[in-house]
Specification:
Layout: H1 2-32, E1 44-50, E2 53-60, E3 62-64, E4 69-70, E5 77-78, H2 83-96, H3 121-125, H4 150-157, H5 174-188, H6 192-204, E6 210-211, E7 225-228, E8 231-234, E9 249-251, H7 253-264, H8 271-277, E10 281-282, E11 288-289, E12 296-300, E13 303-312, E14 315-322, E15 327-333, H9 341-355
Antiparallel strand pairs: 1-2, 1-15, 3-4, 5-9, 6-9, 7-8, 10-11, 12-13, 13-14, 14-15
Helix pairs in contact: 1-9, 2-5, 2-8, 4-5
Keywords: Signal
Pfam families: Beta-lactamase
Protein name: CubicO group peptidase, beta-lactamase class C family
């Protein structure tokens, strides 16, 4: 009788949550399989974490079409513009150390930068600088496969006519984040790759995260693909020194959860600097826009979120964090024919419904 009583009590406290988890898994599978139903093609990996721990993680499709290897949740993906989160936090870490200020003009570090006395680090972080985005330049094809130093990249776009005066409007801009990577090198005295690895990856325990390379042997790499009329093809090759600090990092869903948890626990930034990353800012005319430092500041059904995606040849990525409920949803795809953006948003909406109110100490 005692054993039956114990089983009954355990069912009361864990049974409903188990059923809820099963329902969540089935619902999420249904959402993902809308777009990731080709078992023999490239696919993606998805994770939902609640209170810092995974409650759902699955892989769909192939990691390598030539070898027929299935994707797993441990595969390494190129992050694309999710790299901007790391660049922004690196800048804030340097500010925290007193080595720079986000209010500093670019001219303080690059004396000959055009209009550099009016463009601040804050403008670069918030995509409000007005400088020409190099990804929109026709001459980009001339350098796409060349090894470029950060200075060469900055010189490539710095003399282009500006699109607007600093602070006049928000316009998503990769060049601004390349310039931020160059500033990180100038201020820290370290290469961007070394700074991110030594001060972020190593400190957080992100052992499966890298500065991207097509030449290095990277265990568990997911290969990138594109889809043409004839079928899937290997991704277009670029030199990662071109996207640089705007889009050249690689990681896994597990490492990205470590990253999110480190931000929550103020392991890298204190409260004041963290607040700067996740605040909304205003244009010169007082109009507020929905971007902080490296994250879009949005909402799901009026519940605040922090979001960012990425797109680079062969890969698309997206992550949504709901701070009020400590829910983190991430999707990484190894074909730029599959965008996880809407799926991740739909999953986050569903997870919010399923997981809201679940206690931290629930099994």
């Amino acid at each position: 009788m005692k054993k039956l009583f114990v089983v009954f009590i355990l069912w009361i406290f864990t049974g409903p949550f188990t059923i809820e988890a099963q329902n969540l898994e089935n619902a999420v599978d249904t959402i993902i399989l809308r777009d990731f139903k080709d078992k023999d093609g490239p696919g993606g990996v998805f994770m939902i974490a609640h209170h810092g721990k995974p409650v759902y993680q699955k892989a769909f499709g192939k990691a390598n079409l030539e070898l027929g290897d299935d994707l797993t949740t441990d595969n390494v993906f190129q992050l694309g513009s999710m790299t901007k989160q790391f660049t922004a936090v690196a800048i804030l870490m340097l500010e925290q150390q007193g080595k720079l200020s986000v209010g500093d003009p670019v001219s303080k570090y690059i004396s000959d930068y055009p209009n550099g006395n009016k463009i601040t680090i804050h403008h670069l972080l918030t995509h409000t600088s007005g400088i020409k985005d190099f990804t929109k330049m026709k001459s980009l094809a001339d350098i796409a496969q060349k090894e470029m130093t950060p200075k060469m990249m900055v010189d490539f776009f710095k003399d282009e006519p500006v699109d607007f005066a600093p602070g006049e409007k928000f316009d998503y801009n990769n060049a601004g984040y390349v310039l931020l990577g160059y500033l990180i090198e100038l201020v820290s005295g370290e290469k961007y790759e070394e700074y991110i690895r030594g001060h972020i990856f190593d400190k957080v325990g992100m052992t499966r995260s890298y500065y991207a390379s097509d030449r290095k042997v990277i265990k568990g790499r997911a290969y990138g693909y594109q889809k043409k009329e004839s079928g899937y093809v290997n991704k277009t090759v670029i030199n990662f020194s071109v996207p640089f600090s705007s889009g050249s990092l690689m990681s896994t869903i597990s490492d990205m959860l470590k990253w999110q948890n480190a931000l929550n626990k103020n392991i890298l930034l204190d409260t004041a600097e963290t607040r700067k990353a996740f605040s909304r800012y205003k244009l010169n005319n007082g109009e507020e826009f929905s971007y902080g430092y490296g994250w879009h500041i949005r909402d799901i059904n009026k519940v605040p979120t922090r979001e960012h995606g990425g797109s680079i040849f062969g890969f698309k990525t997206m992550a949504v964090y709901i701070p009020g409920e400590d829910i983190y949803v991430i999707g990484l795809s190894n074909c730029d024919c599959h965008s996880p953006t809407k799926l991740t948003g739909d999953i986050a909406t569903m997870a919010l419904t399923f997981l809201r109110g679940v206690r931290k100490d629930n099994p």
